[in-house]
Amino acid sequence: MRHITIFLIVALGLGSCSLFGKSDEGPVYMVVDKGTNTAISTYYTDGSERITRTESYDGNEFVSRVRDFEYDDSGYVRAMTERSAGGAERTVMYTTTVVRGESGRIEKIVQRSDDGEELETFFGYDEVGTLRGSVVRSVGTDSVVMKDYDE
User: Fold this and answer.
1) Structural domain range at position 70
2) What tens-digit pLDDT sequence spans the chain (151 residues)?
3) What's the CA gap between 133 and 136, in Å, rounded?
C-alpha cells in the first residue's frame, strides 16, 4: 500500500495523472507514461476519494496486477488483496496507530502490515496549529517522502 500511496502522491504532484472518468462510486484516475502514451495504472476511488481498487498494466496495456482495499471505521486501510495476472492472490492486513500530542493534534501515524512492512508519517504544525508539513518514512529502508504545505 505504501508504494501505491507514495506513487499516487508523487504522480499527482508531478501532473502526470489526469482525471480519466467516473465510476458509480467515485472518480477514476489513470496514470499514463507521457513518453509512450501508454497506461501505467488506474486508480478507482469511492465517494470519499479513498482508493478502493488499483490496476497496474504491463508494457502492452494488459492488466498485470489488481489490488483491492478495505478501510476501517476511521478511514485507514485495513486490508489489501492483490491478484497477479497469473492468478496468484495474497491478502495483507494492516493495523494503524495514531499518536496525538498534548493539544490533541495528530503527531504521528504508524501503519504496520502483517507481512512486516511499517510506514511512519510525521506531521509538523506552526505556532498557531496549522499543518505545515509531513514526512513519510518506510521503516527499514531509505525511502522518505516530504511534503511542505503552502499557506
Assistant:
1) 2-148
2) 444 444 444 444 434 444 445 456 678 899 998 888 888 999 999 878 789 999 998 877 788 999 999 999 999 999 999 999 888 899 999 999 999 998 899 999 999 999 989 999 999 998 888 888 888 888 887 777 777 776 5
3) 10
Report the number of distinct structural domains present in the chain: 1
Adjacent-strand bridge partners of 3: none
107 strand-pairing partners: none
Contacts of 134 (CB under 8 A, 6+ apart): 121, 122, 123, 124, 146, 147
Contact between 38 and 61 under an 8 Å Cβ cutoff? The reply is: yes
Q: Model-level pTM greater than 0.85?
A: no
